[in-house]
């Protein structure tokens, strides 16, 4: 007699029409189970369906990823809004359709694909596999593909796109995100990240190409197609050769007594930073053995983000002390960002912020340009750039030295795009940065580059050491000459989009309709710039020079006392971020006084503009230096706490009222 088990019934259910009560969800379930050929992600959806978890299914299947400041980025796993085999195939099919429309020579010039070392066993999903599927989609359509044969730093992909004259490229990476995430970062033929309208048009094409084409799943093409090429050796050689353009003291480097420790945070950076040091004439930096090799679990750090400071640099600092090394350099897992720390005379470590490193880079790159410029070089053709939420220190240096400084919207895609415009007009760009430890020295790569930044910091430190000056001492000299720039960056977590929107709408209608605030507490506001609406009170026509960005909220206030503060939303997280900086003149050297003034202004900003205690739902504020575990402990231990303050962190939390449920 045939068995009629529950398993058989469930199996039959999976092949029957789906009746969840939501036609959109029923369609999405059917599409996923027909199209997905990855057994593990397909099984994830089948299990959710079998257990009647319709909300989870809806969250996974009834939305799609959108392009943020760094391409497509999401958690790995099953679903149309996750990174997985199927969504990468769909994204690449959309890319193919759009590139075919834009480039008549697409099939002659080809496409670049790179990847980092991320992976997730539960979804059978790794950056390498996703890169192979990306290549397979294009190879099946007779497009030449330059697929790196091993993991590479993210900057290698835009560099390769330029050097190989490809129409575009993709890097499979989630950079410094948590281990569960991955991403799909797109570069245009220029070597810069895509901006509008390309991002919107590619998304449209993706939506038109959601069903996998014949051959799209055939990753065997990566091994058999004559159209697949490996650019690794050629690109690595050319990249290292181009590094010499920003090396100014090779002989001095070879004689330095300084020792350097480098950590690659379980990512791609180790081999390439070692090579870069050799190009600059240095002895190899000392690697952190526990973090040298790729590990998708990032097993020695809670967060693979070197920007978090001493809490994630513990192994590096300990090794440096053991090896008598004064400088620690940390590249993030895809080696596009850099953190640096220096041992001080009192035995403590100074971990530089992104803004502080930028002050040093700005001074260094201009000083080297002055000493090595050609006879007919004109300082008026020289430019440096930064995102609008970053320090204004480059602006201060530019005003005194005579070169140009420009701001862009947040995200290196805007910096890269602007650099292209400047280069096409015969300008020279020395340096660009964003406050989140993203740096670009020179223009060989049009994206942030942790490999080149690491070796430039090493050369800077070696040069200063010949004069018995530390990096921190030189930073003080920069501030004494150009003015102290003291900045604080933090964020609030707010889980209700309507609350976030109401905060910004109130600022746009503060004293009366369509009137921005003139004061923040007792602090007078000089200018207001609203990127969301395109308003800028400092311009004669009241229109912002920066592009309007209607999909995000961002307002900048310039105060009479020299402070600049920006409030903006995050494109990927439920955050309201604030960036505040006191920009002092060189004669204002009392840093304690400046810090106190900045603190008072930030407190006024929070109290008058963000008003966390008046939020109608759960609202949390946390300085980025504050470890998440402590926040969670406070959450558990003190459910009635309304405000908690301290020197390095600030939390505001109010429970939901019964009447609000």
From TrEMBL:
Pfam families: PGM_PMM_I, PGM_PMM_II, PGM_PMM_III. It is found in: Cytoplasm, Cytosol. Its EC number is 2.7.1.106. Residues 65-208, 238-345, 354-481 form the Alpha-D-phosphohexomutase alpha/beta/alpha domain. GO terms for biological process: glucose metabolic process. Gene3D superfamilies: Alpha-D-Glucose-1,6-Bisphosphate, subunit A, domain 3. It is an enzyme of class 2 (transferase). Belongs to the phosphohexose mutase family. This is Glucose 1,6-bisphosphate synthase.
């Amino acid at each position: 007699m045939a068995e009629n088990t529950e398993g058989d019934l469930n199996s039959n259910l999976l092949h029957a029409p789906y009746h969840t009560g939501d036609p959109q969800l029923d369609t999405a379930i059917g599409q996923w189970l027909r199209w997905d050929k990855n057994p593990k992600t397909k099984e994830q959806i089948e299990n959710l369906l079998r257990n009647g978890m319709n909300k989870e299914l809806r969250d996974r299947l009834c939305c799609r990823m959108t392009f943020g400041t760094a391409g497509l980025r999401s958690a790995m796993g099953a679903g149309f809004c996750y990174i997985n085999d199927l969504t990468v195939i769909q994204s690449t099919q959309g890319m193919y359709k759009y590139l075919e429309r834009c480039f008549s020579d697409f099939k002659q010039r080809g496409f670049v694909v790179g990847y980092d070392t991320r992976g997730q066993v539960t979804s059978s999903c790794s950056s390498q596999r996703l890169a192979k599927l990306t290549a397979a989609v294009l190879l099946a359509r007779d497009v030449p593909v330059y697929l790196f044969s091993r993991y590479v730093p993210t900057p290698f992909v835009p560099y390769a796109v330029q050097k190989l004259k490809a129409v575009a490229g993709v890097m499979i990476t989630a950079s410094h995100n948590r281990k569960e995430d991955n991403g799909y970062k797109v570069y245009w033929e220029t070597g810069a990240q895509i901006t509008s309208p390309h991002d919107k048009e590619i998304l449209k094409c993706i939506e038109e190409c959601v069903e996998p084409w014949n051959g799209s799943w055939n990753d065997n093409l990566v091994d058999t197609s004559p159209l697949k090429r490996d650019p690794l050796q050629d690109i690595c050689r050319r990249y290292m050769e181009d590094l010499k353009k920003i090396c100014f003291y090779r002989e001095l480097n070879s004689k330095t007594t300084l020792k350097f420790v480098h950590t690659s945070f379980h990512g791609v950076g180790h081999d390439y930073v070692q090579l870069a040091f050799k190009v600059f004439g240095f002895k190899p930096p000392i690697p952190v053995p526990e973090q040298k090799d790729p590990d998708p679990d990032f097993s020695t750090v809670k967060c693979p983000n070197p920007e978090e400071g001493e809490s994630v640099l513990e192994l590096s600092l300990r090794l440096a002390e053991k090896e008598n090394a004064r400088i620690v350099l940390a590249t993030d897992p895809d080696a596009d960002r850099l953190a640096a720390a220096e041992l001080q005379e009192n035995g403590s470590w100074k971990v530089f912020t992104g803004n502080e490193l930028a002050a040093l880079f700005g001074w260094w790159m201009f000083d080297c340009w002055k000493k090595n410029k050609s006879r007919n070089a004109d300082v008026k053709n020289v430019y440096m750039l930064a995102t609008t939420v970053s320090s204004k220190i480059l602006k201060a240096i530019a005003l005194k030295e005579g070169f140009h400084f420009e701001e862009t919207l947040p995200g290196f895609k805007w910096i890269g795009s602007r650099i292209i415009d400047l280069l096409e007009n015969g300008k020279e760009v020395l340096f660009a940065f964003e406050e989140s430890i993203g740096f670009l020295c020179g223009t060989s790569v049009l994206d942030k580059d942790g490999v080149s930044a690491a070796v430039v910091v090493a050369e800077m430190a070696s040069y200063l050491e010949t004069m018995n000056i530390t990096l921190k001492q030189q930073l003080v000299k920069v501030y004494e000459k150009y003015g102290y720039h003291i900045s604080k960056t933090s964020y609030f977590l707010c889980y209700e989009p309507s609350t976030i929107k109401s905060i910004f709408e109130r600022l746009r209608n503060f004293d009366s309709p369509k009137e921005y605030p003139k004061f923040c507490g007792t602090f007078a506001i000089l200018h207001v710039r609203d990127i969301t609406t395109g308003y800028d009170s400092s311009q004669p026509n009241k229109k912002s020079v920066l592009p309007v960005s209607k999909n995000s909220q961002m307002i900048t206030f310039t105060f009479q006392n020299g402070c600049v503060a920006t409030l903006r939303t995050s494109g990927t997280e439920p955050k309201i971020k604030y960036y505040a900086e006191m920009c002092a003149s060189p004669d204002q050297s009392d840093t304690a006084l400046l810090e106190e003034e900045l603190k008072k202004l930030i407190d006024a900003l929070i109290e008058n503009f963000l008003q966390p205690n008046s939020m109608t739902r759960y609202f949390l504020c946390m300085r980025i230096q504050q470890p998440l575990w402590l926040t969670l402990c406070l959450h558990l231990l003190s459910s009635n706490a309304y405000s908690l303050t301290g020197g390095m962190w600030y939390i505001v939390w109010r429970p939901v009222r019964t009447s609000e449920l």
